[in-house]
Amino acid sequence: MRIHAELYDGSVTTGRPVVLSAAPGGRLRIEDGGTIREHAYAEVRIASRIADTPRRVTLADGSGCIATDNDAIDALDVALARAAPAQARGRRFRRGVDRLARLLDRDALGVAVALTVAVGILFAASRWGAPALGTAIVSAVPPEADAPIGQQLVDALDQIRLFQPTALAPERQDSLRRAFGDIRGDLGVDARLEFRQAKLLGPNAFAVAGGTVILTDAIVEIAMHDEELVAVLAHELGHVRERHWLRMVAQSAAIVVIWTAVTDPTLATLAAVAPSQLLELSYSREFEREADEIAFDYLTRNGIRPTRLQDLLKRITASCGEHCDQASWLSSHPPVEERSGD
Asked: For residues 289-308, b (16+ Cβ closer than 10 Å) or e, as one string?
């Protein structure tokens, strides 16, 4: 099997003719004039077939070959996979999806069915597969590994001056740290409390990997009762206990892995961007409800009204008005109306 193609290596804007074939051991052979080179199957990425459009075979160095004989490229892919089964395991599912798509793309109804199936697979994998895979990844990482990650993030935010040193009185900080210590002991988590000024973030609180919880001066100042801040701290320590920050990162990575296995690298790149935009500076609503449940349980057991959290959120809403979605604790947490029934 010899496939005529054009090689684009970036040195010039035009391609040069080459011949592709399968070499022993599941290696791709490229005959480039008088030069012959071979690439392991794991180093080769063959684009999915879309009707009769030319196909790109991408190599490890970023260069690529464009071929128009799709049937021959399919046969080459199968031959390489059979000769190197260990390297082909992650591609079998995608090739099956490609074959199904080719069977269905012969008419408009087939295209619609194929598109529906593909979207359904990606949705199910992203909605349920990624969280399960993310949780499995986090469970394999010892909690002690979280701390350096969280500290590096806080240091980076300090360096770019998103944060400034707190202006809270030392006595006020000590009072909140004592309350924080009580919650931390009750929930059985290892964490520390930091205070920062952050004008761009407004009234805010968040937890990062390693158990660092940060309160902005603005959220302390807007609270009318210490129990409101206790509710916020219990909520953020709920994130710490459940390792939500690391789970969020792991889930985003899992989505990229799933999309890469099913689609082309270009679509996988889009998958990397979309979840990060959706999750940036915020946890998923599921994580938020888990943290709410932990906080409400703590408040109830300690004789504090669970509505203290809603009281503070309503006050933040009233203070920020139309800018609530741009900054503050509300931008990364469910609306007050959604929490009222919790």
From this structure: bbbbebbbebbeeeebebeb
Structure tokens at 226: 């210490």
Fold observed for domain 143-339: Zincin-like (3.30.2010)
The verdict on pTM exceeding 0.70 is: no
Q: Are 327 and 200 in contact (CB under 8 A)?
A: yes
> What is the tens place of the pLDDT at every residue in 158-184?
888 888 999 999 999 999 999 999 999
Query: Tokens 């707190």 identify what position?
Result: 166
Give the pLDDT confidence of 185-222 residue by residue, as tens digits.
Answer: 999 999 999 999 988 888 999 888 888 999 999 999 99
Q: Name the CATH topology of 3-88.
A: PH-domain like (2.30.29)
Beta bridge partners of 208: 212
Helix (H) or strand (E) holding 241: helix 226-242
Per the model's pLDDT, the better-predicted residue between 258 and 93 turns out to be 258
Beta-bridge partner residues of 309: none
DSSP bridge pairs for 206: 214
pLDDT tier, 4 (very low <50, low <70, confident <90, very high otherwise): very high
- Domains of the chain, by residue range, sit at 3-88, 143-339
Contact 67, 4 (CB under 8 A): yes
β 212-216/192-197 pair status: parallel
For the chain, the distance separating the N- and C-terminal CA atoms, rounded to the nearest angstrom, is 64
Beta bridge partners of 215: 195, 205
The CA-CA-CA angle for residues 317, 322, 323, to 5°, reads 80
Rounded Cα–Cα distance for residues 333 and 311 (Å): 14
